[in-house]
Amino acid sequence: MKKKSHKTINNKCDTLWSKIVRERAGNRCEYCGRQNKMLNAHHIFGRTFLPLRWVLNNGIALCPLHHTFSNTFSAHLAPTEFTFWLVKKRGEEWYKKLRQKTFPDIHRNPLTIKDKEVIYEELKKHSDKDNTIDKRFYKV
Predict the structure, then answer these.
(1) 7, 21, 30, 69: which has the fewest C-beta neighbours closer than 10 Å?
(2) Are 101 and 55 in contact (CB under 8 A)?
(3) Three-state secondary structure call for residue 53
(4) Dist CA 26 CA 120 (whole Å)
């Protein structure tokens, strides 16, 4: 039997997380509303914030323009404008609660492969549901 690796389960969780974030948005950019075959699932707080890496509320679906290419509004090239818009869209309280989750000391309790498999199974449950945008998904 092949030994499971962190990289393998991380990739599985990343792929499923991305799929759910895009499906929740109806496969449309949450900023401009356009459908795009290259729709991106953007981490509001980057993947390096391990406690939030696969939290669905930490994701937003964006077209390539609004994810990385626009100088006037994109999550990567205009992060201040993006954050202001996001807080207005989802609420200041939502943002504060999500941001607080970036602070835990993950180094004391790193996730095991088993922990990640549990996360993957939980993500699969969300993938099997109707994932259109709904305020319930924004509760932290």
Answers:
(1) 7
(2) yes
(3) coil
(4) 21
Bridge-partner residues for 59, per DSSP? 43
- How many other C-beta atoms are found inside a 10 Å radius of the C-beta of residue 23? 19
Which residues, 6+ apart, have CB-to-CB distance to 59 below 8 Å? 17, 18, 20, 21, 41, 42, 43, 44
Per DSSP, 27 falls in state T
Block residue for tokens 């309790």: 109
Q: Please give the structure tokens belonging to residue 1.
A: 């039997």
Token match 């449309």: residue? 28
Q: How far apart are alpha carbons 101 and 7 in whole angstroms?
A: 23
SS3 readout for 111-135: CCHHHHHHHHHHHHHHHCCCCCCCH
Determine the residue type at 48: T
Q: Would you state the structure tokens that stand for residue 110, as one six-digit string? A: 């790193």
Query: What digits encode the pLDDT tens for the residues 77-93?
Result: 999 999 999 999 999 99
* pLDDT for res 140: 38
- pTM for this predicted structure: 0.79
